[in-house]
Amino acid sequence: FDIVLNSSILRSPYLLQKEVFLMDDANTKANSENTTIYPADNAAVANNASLKRSKFIDQGKTVTLISDLNCSLFKTGKLLPSNLDVRVALTKNNSGYVLLEAANGNHKIKFLKCYLRVTMMQPSDFCLNLIEQKLLKTPATYICESGKVSFHSLPAGSATITINNLFPQGNLPVMFTFGVQDRTALGDARSKNPYTFIPMQRVQIYLNGKPYFPSALEGKTIQFDWFYNTIGYKTTGECLITPSNYDIHPLVAVDLTADKTSNKHHLNLSNTGEVKLDITLQEEAPEGLILLVYSYYDRIIEINSDRSVRIL
């Protein structure tokens, strides 16, 4: 490959120099959507990663994107039964997706090749026979997760926003992640970046009226201040989203796993209930903002001796 795109900052310096270009290294959402790929010589570069990538492509080189399949069944530590028929369907997005050029641009992304890398293990015949005998009696059980995306329109003209009953069915996910986004970034707008978000100034989550955090997450690096102080340090440690790049990736993740401890003051939440969000933005919300919520639900998958798959 000529270039590999990777979103991780935790790469060795050698690989970063020889193989990997970060998707973004802008410090604000506005800079991540700056469509001036080649600024004047005396102008500051808004997104240096985008500039480097564009120069390589202009030289006739290709970009390789390496990613895993977002399917929890493939990510479990438990091996799948042999001779299991698996079909993978890939849906192509629009040809100008995330090119980040002027709204009237007409460039297209062209896929040259697509590879699927699969890791397999070959048990001995004796083990295979044991597995088949057990499958005749009991299906193989896999505990997986099911992801669900939901959108909530945010009212314009106010910096303080409250969303009641985030999960109206009452069944809570084991975890959910949320961020504020421009609605047009999720469409076919060429000048919008769907992977960078609107900064939040203050966040608090409530379950049945009780606060999830001891005090609201507040400030430029809201959840990191809270997390670092809790574990005893604030300025060290590495994370994909860090205080240095929080302005471009302001997301909050909330663990709703049922509390199995005897500690009555433990803040993990139950599996059912009503969730309310209080969010304060850094400025009044313009028209067209939405709350993007990605929820993770537990699910059980059974595979029997006939290789029939049952989702519970």
Describe the structure.
- The two termini are 42 Å apart.
- With 312 residues, the chain is of the alpha+beta class.
- Helix content is 14%, strand content 25%.
- Mean pLDDT is 76; it is low at 1-20 and 230-241.
- Strand 7 and strand 8 (210-211) form a beta hairpin.
- 14% of the residues are buried.
Helix and strand pattern: EHEHHEHEEEEEEHEEEE
Tally of DSSP β-strands: 13
**What is the strand content?**
15-25%
Helix content: 10-25%
* Main sheet: strands, sense, barrel: 5 strands, antiparallel
Distance between the termini: 42 Å
Count of helices? 5
User: What is the molecular shape?
Assistant: flat
SS-derived structural category: alpha+beta
Q: Report Rg.
A: 23 Å
pLDDT < 50 stretches: 1-20, 230-241
The chain-level mean pLDDT equals 76
What's the arrangement of secondary structure elements?
Blueprint: E1 3-6, H1 13-18, E2 20-22, H2 29-32, H3 48-58, E3 63-65, H4 125-137, E4 140-153, E5 160-163, E6 175-182, E7 200-207, E8 210-211, E9 217-218, H5 222-231, E10 252-255, E11 275-281, E12 289-303, E13 309-311
Parallel strand pairs: 1-2, 1-3
Antiparallel strand pairs: 4-12, 5-11, 6-10, 6-12, 7-8, 7-9, 7-11, 12-13
Quick structural summary:
By secondary structure, this protein is of the alpha+beta class. It has helices at 13-18, 29-32, 48-58, 125-137, 222-231, and strands at 3-6, 20-22, 63-65, 140-153, 160-163, 175-182, 200-207, 210-211, 217-218, 252-255, 275-281, 289-303, 309-311.
Features of the shown structure:
alpha+beta; 312 residues; five-stranded antiparallel β-sheet
